[in-house]
Specification:
Layout (H helix, E strand, L loop, with lengths): L1 H30 L8 E7 L4 E3 L10 H14 L6 H5 L9 H7 L8 E2 L10 H9 L9 E11 L4 E10 L5 E10 L5 H28 L2
Parallel strand pairs: 1-4, 2-3, 2-4
Antiparallel strand pairs: 4-5, 5-6
Helix pairs in contact: 2-6
């Protein structure tokens, strides 16, 4: 009987702790939508998993690493257009491209080229979680935001990416969602950075409200 009572007490304790665990996880998600909450830091566009489908045009594959850097810099130099503050309802969204710049510089351009267009996703939350754990975070305060670029599809004129929020303290994902934008513009850089602009615009216009309803209400 004494052993049975011990088991019952253990089960009761586990039941009580169960909602507390998820409440803590939920609370971290809610902090994304608190204007005065933890700082959200833009870490850039991670191209390490990207696949480019269709013709490169006048671009040589060995130029891709430099072009990925150029796309990242457009988002920074044209902050008023790629407006994370408006999209995330924050007074300021600082940036630090050091991690993605280092990782993107090690990409094998040949492996980034695909020869068939596929609609299904190649990435998922589990795969992204592994990628984030490889990030060497120096400042561990706040929330990291990174877009994992998945596909630049010239055939469909579409770019897909995983918008990912994670805790800088422990590298745990708060949430990630696959989004896409339509390509447009002259030159490789301008053509594909347009997809990033469209995703940020979608967040500002509709997604932020959808996410807030999902994770806060």
């Amino acid at each position: 009987m004494k052993g049975l009572n011990t088991i019952r007490k253990g089960l009761i304790s586990a039941i009580l702790l169960f909602p507390m665990f998820f409440a803590g996880y939920s609370q971290k998600q809610q902090e994304i939508f608190n204007r005065m909450g933890p700082e959200i830091v833009w870490l850039g566009l991670d191209f390490t998993q990207v696949r480019i489908v269709g013709p490169l045009g006048t671009v040589d594959k060995n130029e891709l690493r430099e072009l990925f850097d150029d796309i990242n810099m457009v988002v920074i130099t044209e902050r008023s257009k790629y407006n994370f503050e408006a999209a995330l309802r924050k007074d300021e969204v600082p940036y630090n491209l050091k991690i993605v710049t280092g990782l993107n510089s090690e990409i094998d351009p040949g492996k980034a080229i695909a020869y068939a267009s596929k609609e299904e996703s190649r990435l998922n939350e589990e795969a992204i979680s592994v990628l984030i754990k490889q990030y060497r975070i120096e400042n561990k305060e706040g929330i990291g935001l990174v877009f994992f670029m998945e596909t630049l599809d010239k055939i469909r004129e579409n770019g897909t990416m995983w918008v990912t929020f994670f805790s800088l303290a422990d590298g745990n994902i708060l949430f990630t969602e696959r989004m896409s934008g339509t390509a447009g513009g002259i030159s490789f850089r301008n053509h594909w950075v347009r997809t990033v602009y469209e995703v940020i615009d979608q967040i500002r216009n509709t997604k932020y409200a959808e996410w807030r309803f999902r994770y806060v209400n």
